[in-house]
């Protein structure tokens, strides 16, 4: 790893065939890393040769990604990242960022939620969906052979709203019921929320 070789002063990456403007995932990663970023536009000249173009530089500035409307980027803007953002913003709780490989839900080895929920301060709600409270994490199993691979946060008792970030979709708010209820496998509650 680069950090093993010395201090990392900046991150440089490219945006092939598009402007070198930071995406929400780039902005989040810059904030998380606490160091400047440089994005290089890469394209082709008239002869077809690859050329570097404009460079855009930015640094941590306090950016906070929105909860809703973000494109899915595994490990940066996914369902667990949404849970982390919600808890930090709404409860002032910083949850650990567990390493996760894309496709972990089908490798038969890693189980992101069941292996880590207690380490993050959660416990299973014995009555599950019958006792939902705002802030509860709903674990679901969608197109996975092995275990729960998706999660949402229950945010409103009136209309049963849940926010979630499904693979390949924008983060969004949905009514919790129907399909979502059918694929639910467990409900987790942060320990300090216990009634």
Automatic annotation (TrEMBL):
<dbReference type="InterPro" id="IPR000064">
    <property type="entry name" value="NLP_P60_dom"/>
</dbReference>
<dbReference type="InterPro" id="IPR038765">
    <property type="entry name" value="Papain-like_cys_pep_sf"/>
</dbReference>
<keyword id="KW-0479">Metal-binding</keyword>
<keyword id="KW-0482">Metalloprotease</keyword>
<dbReference type="InterPro" id="IPR028090">
    <property type="entry name" value="JAB_dom_prok"/>
</dbReference>
<keyword id="KW-0378">Hydrolase</keyword>
<keyword id="KW-0788">Thiol protease</keyword>
<feature type="domain" description="NlpC/P60">
    <location>
        <begin position="45"/>
        <end position="191"/>
    </location>
</feature>
<comment type="similarity">
    <text>Belongs to the peptidase C40 family.</text>
</comment>
<keyword id="KW-0645">Protease</keyword>
<keyword id="KW-0862">Zinc</keyword>
<dbReference type="InterPro" id="IPR051929">
    <property type="entry name" value="VirAsm_ModProt"/>
</dbReference>
<dbReference type="Pfam" id="PF00877">
    <property type="entry name" value="NLPC_P60"/>
</dbReference>
<dbReference type="Pfam" id="PF14464">
    <property type="entry name" value="Prok-JAB"/>
</dbReference>
<protein>
    <recommendedName>
        <fullName>NlpC/P60 domain-containing protein</fullName>
    </recommendedName>
</protein>
């Amino acid at each position: 790893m680069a950090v093993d070789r010395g201090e990392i002063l900046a991150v440089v990456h490219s945006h092939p065939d598009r402007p070198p403007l930071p995406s929400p995932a780039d902005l989040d990663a810059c904030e998380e890393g606490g160091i400047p970023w440089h994005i290089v536009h890469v394209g082709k000249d008239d002869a077809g040769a690859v050329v570097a173009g404009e460079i855009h530089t930015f640094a941590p500035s306090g950016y906070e990604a929105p909860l809703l409307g973000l494109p899915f980027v595994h490990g940066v803007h996914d369902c667990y990242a949404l849970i982390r953002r919600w808890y930090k913003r709404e409860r002032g709780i910083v949850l650990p960022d567990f390493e996760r490989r894309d496709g972990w839900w089908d490798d038969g080895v890693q189980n992101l939620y069941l292996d880590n929920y207690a380490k993050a301060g959660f416990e299973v709600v014995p009555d599950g969906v019958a006792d939902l409270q705002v802030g509860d994490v709903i674990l679901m199993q969608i197109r996975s052979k092995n275990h729960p691979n998706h999660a949402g946060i229950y945010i409103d008792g009136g209309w049963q709203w849940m926010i979630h970030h499904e693979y390949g979709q924008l983060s969004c708010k949905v009514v919790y019921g129907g399909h979502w209820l059918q694929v639910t496998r467990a409900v987790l509650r942060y320990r300090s929320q216990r009634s």
